[in-house]
Design a protein that fits this description.
53% of the residues lie in helices and 16% in strands. The protein is of the alpha/beta class.
């Protein structure tokens, strides 16, 4: 029942109708009571997953809207995600603001890789962790600019692409840290320096797509270069982005009031490779 609801986006009311066709008598409140009981049983494990993520030296984090229905009106809360190679943790909060983010990330002192949202900078300062930025996000503006400025967009994309080519030469995970450190020092640093000099030499209209892309990279340069000094920091935050598919908005049915969101919060933590 929980898998049907959370993995297959099958509402409890619809599950009741399916059961009726099979000759089973149930109502959605009964099913919801079971979901709540399951959430209570999973809560200790959920808390342990969060602590495991916060103890990691490096984690990815992100937030995305979580639709809520309240008295017939639709509003949006926020689903925060913490992601490590070991586990993925989700928490529903009232907003994507710094106060709620601090509650999610409280106690983390390592390096977090994010997407350069303003709130991410505030969290790094207030919670006390190192903030790294994602090169996949850095590429997006140039992909968008290809239609209007294909030459320069492709120049940047080709240089940035070399970074992923270099990364692929080291084994993944901790066993590849020393090889990755060597590769980054010997190969990635010159590429990053070439990108920096290329950025310095560009002239553009401030509101142009290529200008916006260049300003984004230049404005987040410190965070984009954190990976050079720490082989455990990934080049991108794609691991976190991949943590969203089962919860993408077009699969969601909005949580109903606080109890529904609370149950969702407790039920969605999962351990990678083991399923929800």
């Amino acid at each position: 029942m929980a898998n049907n609801k959370y993995l297959d986006a099958l509402p409890l009311e619809r599950q009741v109708r399916i059961m009726e066709r099979e000759g089973l008598v149930a109502d959605s409140q009964t099913l919801w009571d079971q979901i709540e009981a399951l959430a209570e049983a999973l809560t200790p494990g959920c808390a342990r997953l969060k602590q495991d993520a916060l103890r990691a030296p490096v984690l990815g984090f992100d937030e995305t809207p979580w639709p809520v229905l309240s008295k017939g009106n639709r509003k949006s809360w926020t689903m925060w995600q913490l992601s490590t190679p070991r586990a993925v943790f989700y928490e529903i909060a009232a907003s994507k603001g710094s106060a709620d983010g601090q509650k999610v990330l409280e106690g983390f002192t390592g390096t977090a890789i994010g997407d350069a949202a303003v709130v991410h900078r505030a969290l790094a300062r207030d919670v006390g962790f190192t903030l790294a930025f994602c090169w996949s996000h850095a590429r997006r503006g140039f992909i968008k600019a290809e239609g209007n400025d294909p030459l320069r967009a492709r120049q940047f994309l080709e240089m940035a692409g070399q970074l992923w080519t270099i990364e692929a030469q080291a084994p993944p995970g901790p066993e590849g840290d020393e090889a990755r450190r060597k590769l980054r020092n010997e190969k990635s640093r010159p590429v990053v320096e070439a990108i920096k000099q290329w950025l310095i030499g560009q002239r553009f209209l401030p509101q142009s797509e290529i200008g916006t892309a260049i300003k984004y990279v230049a404005g987040h340069w410190d965070g984009l270069t954190v990976f050079l000094d720490n082989p455990a920091v990934p080049l991108d935050n794609n691991q976190t982005e991949r943590g969203y598919p089962m919860y993408l908005p077009h699969f969601w049915l909005a949580a109903m009031e606080s109890l529904g969101a609370s149950v969702d919060h407790d039920a969605v933590a999962r351990d990678d490779g083991m399923g929800p």
